[in-house]
Design a protein that fits this description.
Layout (H helix, E strand, L loop, with lengths): L1 H26 L14 H14 L4 E10 L2 E10 L12 E6 L7 H14 L10 H8 L2 E6 L4 H8 L31 H4 L9 H13 L3 E6 L2 E6 L11 H17 L5 E4 H4 L8 H7 L5 E8 L9 H5 L4 H26 L17 H5 L4 E4 L5 E4 L4 H34 L7
Parallel strand pairs: 3-4, 3-5, 5-8, 6-7
Antiparallel strand pairs: 1-2, 2-4, 6-8, 9-10
Helix pairs in contact: 2-3, 3-12, 8-12
């Protein structure tokens, strides 16, 4: 009898766990893997881009910049588009800098980079666009494209960690810039937002900073996914900047939103629109320090219904129809930027490109912590300090505080000395 009861109890437990396991499967569907039919691997994607450059040397060139910090090495490939490169004269051209794949899990952004480069090289075409008009616009531009800023993080994603957004040693590259670096909000998540040991501690951000300083763009766009949005500064405040350029950025984003998002994209400052503040971001640095007249962060796709653990589905289209729609809509949006950006800025931010002699030194020499000088847009010299502005402000406050304390102690001693002399009794003669 006891043996029978044991068997019955064991069968009951098996049935219980089986039913609950099936319920778990119903409430928690399996995570969506990378769709290899839609998405290139990082190696294949860079080979495809290299092929574009090789086939179109009259329009495209590519360089790969490497850097190492404390044993951690990173490399970033930069593709430059300039029609009729034989004249090699960028002085009168409008300069645009685009970065894709800053977060490893956002594969769709790097696919968009490839689509844009394919259109620029005329291997693919935008529908309903007059080629003569497009070429007239592109003749006036120099465009630098970083197709995959975070190659090391991307490789971690491809190895199976589909939620990884940081670089190869766990630092969020969009929190590693110096503007308001290191400040943490109440909901700070070190897995998501680790800012590194200091501003520009990571080789990737060091390379990108040098690129931005030497190229001195009129327009910067940092491309991400997770939602549909068109953001301008600031990320670390819930307000937008004052001034003419801020108004021009708003007008441009409103037009892009109308033409390509059907007004469904969130617009405004990143900090004021997304629901949280982000500190140490690339776009705030580009606007505040590099003084890029138009600095944006674009979010090109997001599945709000996806589980927070189902990262590939949350950040990337998983079906062919949506995949093509995203690439078609957003590549058209970028070519609208290429056309309207120069028109919006007009002569207000016209500037003459001055070749930077510092670009001839090695990346390691620049990144060792020395000052770098460059010609500003107004012809004056400015210094770009390796230490972040936040640290400089902190040191200045400490200096002021120390000065006030020393002054207070000095005045107190003088007052005490006068007081002691006034109460001394008269000495007998």
């Amino acid at each position: 009898m006891g043996h029978f009861l044991s068997l019955f109890f064991f069968a009951f437990l098996q049935s219980f766990f089986l039913v609950n396991g099936n319920n778990d499967n119903l409430t928690h569907p399996p995570l969506v893997p990378i769709n290899r039919d839609l998405y290139h691997s990082s190696v294949d994607l860079m080979e495809m881009i290299n092929g574009l450059v090789h086939r179109h040397p009259d329009k495209l060139t590519m360089e790969t910049i490497k850097s190492i910090n404390k044993g951690y090495q990173a490399e970033i490939s930069v593709v430059t588009y300039c029609r009729g490169r034989k004249d090699n004269d960028d002085s009168s051209k409008f300069r645009i800098l685009l970065s894709f794949g800053q977060h490893g899990r956002e594969l769709i952004s790097t696919e968009l980079a490839f689509r844009i480069l394919s259109i620029l090289s005329e291997e693919q075409f935008l529908p309903n666009v007059d080629s003569a008009s497009l070429n007239s616009t592109l003749d006036k531009l120099v465009i630098k494209v970083v197709p995959m800023e975070n190659l090391n993080g991307r490789k971690i994603v491809e190895a199976g960690d589909l939620c990884e957004r940081r670089n190869g040693r766990g630092v969020d590259l969009n929190r590693n810039w110096s503007v308001d670096w290191g400040k943490k909000e109440k909901d700070y998540d070190p897995y998501e937002e680790n800012p590194g040991t200091g501003p520009f501690s990571e080789p990737e951000t060091q390379i990108m900073r040098k690129l931005a300083i030497s190229f001195d763009p009129h327009v910067w766009i940092n491309v991400h996914s997770g939602m549909e949005a068109l953001f301008m500064p600031y990320d670390h405040r819930n307000t937008t900047p004052d001034g003419v350029s801020s108004h021009q950025m708003k007008l441009l984003l409103e037009e892009v939103n109308r033409l390509h998002c059907q007004n469904r994209c969130m617009t405004g400052s990143g900090g004021g629109s997304v629901g949280y503040l982000a500190h140490g971001t690339a776009t705030d640095y580009m606007y505040d320090i590099i003084r890029v007249p138009m600095a944006f962060t674009f979010e090109i796709y997001g599945d709000g219904a996806a589980s927070s653990k189902d990262c590939f589905k949350m950040f990337n289209p998983t079906d062919l129809t949506t995949f093509n729609r995203v690439l078609n809509d957003w590549s058209a949006a970028f070519f609208t930027i290429f056309k309207l950006g120069p028109q919006q800025l007009g002569e207000v931010h016209s500037k003459v490109y001055v070749p930077n002699r510092d670009t001839e030194e090695s990346i390691d020499e620049y990144l060792n912590g020395y000052l770098m000088q460059r010609s500003s847009r107004h012809g004056k010299k400015m210094e770009v300090l390796d230490v972040g502005l936040q640290e400089m402000r902190t040191y200045f406050r400490l200096f002021l505080l120390s000065s006030v304390l020393l002054l207070f102690m000095f005045c107190s001693r003088i007052a005490k000395s006068k007081s002691s002399r006034s109460v001394l009794p008269a000495m007998p003669l």
